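Posting this for the archive.
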Amino acid sequence: MKINGSNRDIQESKKSIRASIQKKRDSLSERLRQQKSLLISRKFMELDHYKRASKILAYYPFRSEIDTRIIIEDALSRSKEIALPRVSNNRLVLYYIKDLTQDLEFGSYNIMEPIPYSCQQVPINDLELALVPGIGFDRDHNRLGYGGGFYDRLLLDGAEHIPRISLAFDVQIIDNIPVSEYDLKIDILITESYFY
């Protein structure tokens, strides 16, 4: 939903929504998050988008996010190429990884990122499918990120043809996400109960 008002008003609204949803997501027990992660990951892996794609952008799970390692491991076992992001100069740089235990190190924001000297860099427009993280979503496919604009910049940079899919827990879905001009919509949203 595009809301009227200044950019400052929109940012304040986003900040408040972010904190509220983050609290709900953090309140899920680790056991419950793992159960829901497995269910959501299975739904994703049944998509034709996933079955057909051989080069996929994913992300390493952070804090209470869905455990995307389930999908990454499955993709690698099927000889799909998986790219993960690394923050460099306030932008995301993508690298193919082959092994979650050997190709990653703690990077920006204490998130696991590819090690540049042991992984091959890949341009975003070489990929066929993108998993996009977010804090909150609405049923109109609007996404609320973490506030850095990293994925909006990345996916507007010659990657308009790549289907964008987000995975979320039901508690992350709200009626309306406030959006500004440069906020990117996603194509598909999957939760444990719904498929949007």
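The first helix runs from residue 7 to 26. Residues 7-190 form a domain with the Rossmann fold fold (CATH 3.40.50.10420).
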